[in-house]
Write the structure tokens for this entry.
Amino acid sequence: MRNYSVLPRRPLQTQTRFHVPRQDLPPRVTLDDAAVGVMTDFRKTTAFTIDPDVSVDTAARVMRRRRVHLLLVVDVDNVVVGIITSNDLIGEKTLQCITARGIARADALVRDIMTPADRLEVISMDDVLHAHVGHVVATLKATGRRHAAVVDEDDHGHQVLRGLLSCSQIALQLGEPVETVEVAQNFAEISAALHT
């Protein structure tokens, strides 16, 4: 067997950072460009996830560190059980949870304020492939959401989360803001809004 020499070692310097994958964005898009050009594709970019049983403060730290506004909430098998957004963390959902349960913010968990998977609506990758950026903007405005999940299917016909469309990403590429107004999606949300 061949003898291998030991590689030289040295101390890690203070203030050392690490490399992160770079997502190359087109310099600009217009509303008439292909919608797929503004989608964060999980085949090319890592999806950021969080456990449902961590605190909302931990989720906020993860978002700040990753510079994202949405985390996929996944179980131990990496099955999507919901999503949590930065708006959830700073908005009414967290305040209502703390007030209703009589707990401190530090005790509020992601599962308490996330949007559960059974309340999520998704867009088909096939539709995104045939759409323009303007279609995505119109969809986000009509739903009052800042994000839209995109799915395709595996070989067995089961949905697989393929990517995300986000107002902040689109605004960055358009070079202008994309504003949406949150729309209550069901009676419970409308009722909650009326009673606050």
